[in-house]
User: Fold this.
Amino acid sequence: MHKIWEDYKYYDTVHAYGNLTTRSCQRSVQIEGLENIPKDGAVILAPNHCTALMDPMMILLLSKGKIAFGARSDIFKNPKTARILRWMRILPIARERNGLSEVAKNFETFDEIIDCLDHGVPFCLYSEGMHRAERGMLPVKKGIFRIAKMAVDKLGKKVYVVPVGLDYEDFFQGQRRTAIRVGEPIEVGEAFRSHGEESEAEIYHHLCETLRERILALIGRIPPRRKGNKLLRVLGAVLSLPLFAVCAVGSLIIWLPLLIITSRLKDKAWTQTVRYVLHLLFPLFWPFHICFERLLNFYRDL
Assistant:
């Protein structure tokens, strides 16, 4: 079985196409703070988690190189799916609800994560342990720092947990603004040394609170758009109706399945992921669908 830090045939090409597809689903993607990603040690990226599988697609925009991920283990049950996910550099991480036998397998995954970090490939872990399409954050789980501490002890080099804020203007609609902000990293070995008088539980609690505060400072910062003169906007809406009709017909293969699938979703946080997959499958219809959704947003904003 190949290592997730190794070079794969066609991976760079697929990565580039995936990044292009991600941008096609958004009106704009602003990336800030790349200079905060350390170059002198192992890096664990710790973003907030709000739009299911769309979030890792956003994280991949941070680098043209390799980034590996952890995901909940139940999506690996199908062997074919598991092979695809591994090719995408995604490893399974079981939660307590999956049962003790599954949780025990995490130690094998932790070894792979540490091996990945040792070979200079950043690893992305969602510190909340679950997603939700809401502003703010759930409490940070200490698992991300347990893994980081294991890496410090095993590798004997600096290991950083880097907060990343994924800031969506809208969690469900396409062609809205998004920002990806990288915050000040936490050097885990130094944190344990500087809090040496505290118990291990207290240190983990402090680290979790620090990470949560730093991520919260990176999100909820997209300013409202200036809408301009309402009379002119109404006139523009009326004049654009023929173009909207053309784009609606031209992008039918994307927006109709999107409408049907998302109407049946229990977890609406998957809406952006469904949009992404449809864009991935039908790139020739991007121009129509991009125009369609931007005009639709224009009408909504009236």
The longest strand covers residues 159-168. The CA atoms of residues 51 and 269 lie 5 Å apart. Residues 200-216 form the longest helix (17 residues). Strands lie at 28-32, 42-47, 68-72, 90-93, 123-124, 159-168, 177-182, 186-187.
